[in-house]
Structure formats: C-alpha cells, structure tokens
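wait is this the right file?? whatever heres the structure
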C-alpha cells in the first residue's frame, strides 16, 4: 500500500482495519507510514473512548435493572401489607363471632347489629384481598413498562453510538486521505525542486 493508493474511494472500515503490521508493509514510503500512523492513532483513541462508553452503558443498564427490581419488590411489599390488613379484618370478624356465641343473653337488636358489623368486616377483608392482587398486578405492569422504556433508551443509546462511530470513521478517513494527499504534494514539490537543482 502506498500513498498513491490511499484515495477517496477507500472506505472508513478499510482504514480502521489497519493494524501494527501496516507500518512494516509501508517501509520506504514515509508519507504512507505517517498517514498510517495517524489512522492507527485515531483508531486507538476511538477504542479507548468506546471502552469508556461501554463501561458507562453497563453502569446505566445495571442501574435501570435495579430500578425495575425495586419496583417489583415494592409491589410485593404493598400486596403483603394489604393482605395483612385484610387478614386482620377477617380475624377481627372471627373474634366478634366468638364473642357473640359466648354472649347468648345479648338482645336481638344488638345481635343483628353485631352480625352486620361482622358481615361488613368479612366483605371488607375479601375486597382487601382482591384489591391487593389488583394493586400488585398494576405495579408489576408499571415495572414491566419501566423495563421496556429502559430497553428503548438502551437501543437509542446504541444507535447514537453507532452514528458516532460512523461519523468518526468518516472523519478519520477524510483526515487520512487529506494527510496522504498533502504528503504526496510535498513529495512531488520536493522531487521537482531536486530535478530543477540537478538540471
């Protein structure tokens, strides 16, 4: 590969694929070696930047996963508390039934009132269990929605990274081509001056 063979038709991926063996292949072609070193330097810089971006992406993903897990745990805690309250009402109703059974000399009106209160506690307990399950399901759906939104953000960040890589590769290719062209012009000017001085 020589300077003359680095032109605008070279793709960014071709230039980014250069490795350490390139300089050895370009022995004797100083201009091409300089252009290759510029490309390698830019590639190494981009690799370091990419590694930092990947570490940050892993950190963000871990935080987002932790957020979803906390939402799920919170949903389970809320359900457990609601079920405990419902069970407390049911226990209270059972205690009231036991008290009524013991107090057989209680007037009928008071018995009817107590029976209504007991029935109300049983109904509230059942509704509490149902509500706790519905709240739990709603909270799980909210956690799932948060997880889906986090995944969408992750994909968006990946697309932005790919656009940046493409932009950097294009800029790198232009820079390498411009450097190579300048080196060719300088070399041609030097050759013409040498011919002129010899002539």
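ok assuming it is, sequence goes like this
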């Amino acid at each position: 590969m020589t300077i003359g063979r680095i032109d605008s038709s070279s793709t960014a991926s071709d230039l980014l694929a250069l490795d350490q063996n390139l300089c050895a292949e370009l022995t004797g072609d100083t201009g091409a070696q300089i252009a290759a070193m510029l490309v390698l330097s830019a590639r190494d810089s981009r690799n370091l930047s990419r590694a930092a971006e990947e570490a940050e992406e892993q950190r963000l993903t871990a935080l987002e996963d932790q957020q979803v897990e906390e939402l799920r745990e919170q949903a389970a805690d809320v359900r457990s508390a609601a079920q405990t309250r419902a069970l407390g009402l049911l226990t209270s109703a059972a205690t009231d039934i036991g008290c009524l059974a013991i107090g057989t000399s209680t007037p009928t009106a008071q018995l009817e009132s107590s029976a209504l209160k007991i029935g109300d506690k049983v109904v509230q307990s059942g509704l509490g269990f149902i509500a706790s399950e519905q709240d739990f399901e709603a909270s799980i759906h909210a956690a799932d929605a948060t997880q889906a939104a986090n995944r969408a953000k992750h994909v968006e960040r990946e697309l932005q990274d790919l656009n940046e890589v493409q932009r950097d590769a294009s800029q790198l290719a232009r820079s390498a081509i411009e450097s190579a062209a300048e080196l060719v012009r300088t070399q041609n000017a030097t050759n013409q001056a040498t011919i002129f001085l010899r002539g």
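Residues 108-198 form the longest helix (91 residues). so i think its the right one actually
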